[in-house]
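[Protein data]
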Amino acid sequence: MNVYINGRILMENHILEGHVLIADNTIRDIIPATSYKQSPEDHVIDLKGHFLGPGFVDVHIHGASGFDTMDGTTEAFHEISKILPHTGVTSYLAATMTMAKSAIHQSLNCAQTIIENDNQKGARLIGIHAEGPFVSEKYKGAQNPEFIEAPSYEFYQPYYDIIKLITIAPEEDADYKFANTLHTHHEGVVLSIGHSSATYDTAIEAFKNGYRHVTHLFNAMTGLHHREPGIVGAALTEDFYTEIIADNVHVRPELYKLVLKAKGKDRIILITDAMCAAHLSPGQYELGGQAVIVDKESARLTSGVLAGSVLSMNTAIKNFYDHTDLSVYEAINLASKNPAEELGLYDRIGSIAVNKDADFVVLDDDFIIYETYCKGQLAYSKEESNAT
C-alpha cells in the first residue's frame, strides 16, 4: 500500500493539508496525518511539501518524442504513453489526422487492440479523438485537403466503441444526418465543431443537434465579428465545452481571462494538440504526411500554418494560471476534472477522491512535475530521470 505524506492535496474545490493519502491502484482513504500509524507493509512516499494533484487528461494529442498516433504501431502508442507522465498526463485521447482511410483505420485497429488488452503502462490510452476527415477545406489548418470527405457514419462504424470525440465541420453535415445517426446508436460519443467555416447561426443549429464541444477555440474556425459572431461567438455564448491550446502562440494569453469570464470554470478544457516533435529539439518533422518546421515555441507547415504544438500539459496549465485569477486547483481542474466529466469518466479519474483510480501528479508551485503515478505505479520520477 502506498502512503503519501507531507503533501498539499489538491482536491476539486480546496487544498487539503495535514492529511495522508492511502492507495494501491485506487485511492483507499484520506485521513488526518495525526491518525496515521505506519505498518510494516506500507510504502511511505514523502511528498516534501509539494502538491499532490489528479493526473491530467489530454483529449487532443497527436504525438510526442518522435512518435505519432498515425504511425499505427504498438510501439508508437507505447512510447507516447511512456513520455506523457513526464508532463503529468495519466490518460489521453489519441488524435487522428485527415489522411487516407486505410491509414486512419490502421491507427484505430492498433489503438483498439491496446485498449481491449488493458495492460498499458504509463499514461493510459482511453480512446480516440477523430480529427477529420470531415472538415472544411477553407479552415483545414494542417489537415491534408487531399483526403477531406463529407461526414459518413460508415467511415468509423467499426470503431465507435473506442472513439470518444469527433471533430466535424457541421456545415458539411447535411441536415445533421451524421449527428442524428451517431447519437441514435452511440449517444456517448462527443461531437465537436472544428476546422469549420460555419456561421454563428449554423454553429447554434449544430448545438441544437447534439454538437457539444469546440476543437481548439479560435483556431481553424470562423472568428468573432460584431455582426457575424462566427463559431467563436457561439462557443462563448452557448454551453459548449471549449478546448484551448494554452501555449501563448495559438491564442494570445490576454484572451484567457476573456474565455474564462465567458465560459466559467467548468467548460474550458486545456489540451496540448502536441505533435511528434514535443519533447525533442527544433528541426524538421512530419504531421499527417506533411513537412513541419519546429522551433522552441511552435510547429508550422512550410507555408507558415500552425501544425499542432510542442506544448506540454503542465506548461499549458501554468500559462493559463499565470494570466487568470484561478487558484492552483481550479487551473488543474481544466486539465483533469473537466475533460473527465465530459467523457463520462469522472467516477474513475479527474479528481482525488476515495475509490477513484490512483492517478496522481506531484508538482511544485511552478507546475514542475516531480513524480507521476498511473494507477498507483510510478510512471515518472524527476529525480530518477535526472540521475540518468
Q: What stands out?
A: The first strand starts at residue 2 and ends at 5. The longest helix spans residues 101-117. The CA atoms of residues 146 and 343 lie 31 Å apart. The domain at 2-52+353-387 is CATH 2.30.40.10 (Urease, subunit C; domain 1).
